[in-house]
Amino acid sequence: QVQLVESGGGLAQPGGSLRLSCAASGFTFSRYAMSWTRQAPGKGLEWVSGINGDGSDRNYADSVKGRFTISRDNAKNILYLQMNSLKPEDTALYSCRKAPTDYPSQYEYDYWGQGTQVTVSS
To answer: Which residue in 19, 51, 110, 116 has the most C-beta neighbors within 10 A?
Structure first.
C-alpha cells in the first residue's frame, strides 16, 4: 500500500533553515508528481510546491518562491523541501502528497502523509 512519511520538521528561528523529507513506498515513485502542502492553525490547506516525476518541472507558491526548493531522489524514493529564510508565517503542519498522474497539479492528490510540524519563532 502507498505510504508517505514526512520528517525533518521542528523549531527554527526566523531567518533559519530546515529540510523536510518524505519517504515514499508502495508505488513507482518516479512515475508520479509530488507536492508539499501546509496547514497553519485555524487556516485552510495551502499548496506550497510541486514537482513532476523526473524533477524537470517545479512550481512554487508566491509566498515561498525564492526561499524554498523542492527536489526528489528517485533512486531513494524521497521527496525533499529545503526551506531557507524562514518566517513566522511559515509555521504550519507540512505534508507531502502524491498526484494521480505525472502532472504536478496544485489541487489533485490521491495519497498524503501525516505531516511534520514546522514552527518558526524566536
So the answer is: 51
All three cell numbers of 52: 513532476
CB 112 within 8 A of CB 3: no
Q: Where are any strands of DSSP class E within 40-115?
A: 45-51, 58-60, 68-73, 78-83, 92-98, 111-112
Closest CA to 26 of 63, 52, 1, 4: 1
What confidence tens digit (pLDDT) does each residue in 43-92 have?
Answer: 999 999 999 999 999 999 999 999 999 999 999 999 999 999 999 999 99
Nearest to 51 by CA among 82, 10, 93: 82
Specify whether the CB–CB gap between 20 and 72 falls below 8 A. Answer: no
SS3 (DSSP) at 24: strand
Q: What is the bridge-based pairing of β-strands 116-120 and 10-12?
A: parallel
**Distance between CA atoms of 18 and 87, rounded to whole angstroms?**
12
**How high is the pLDDT of residue 106?**
86
| Residue 48 · residue 38 · CB < 8 Å | yes
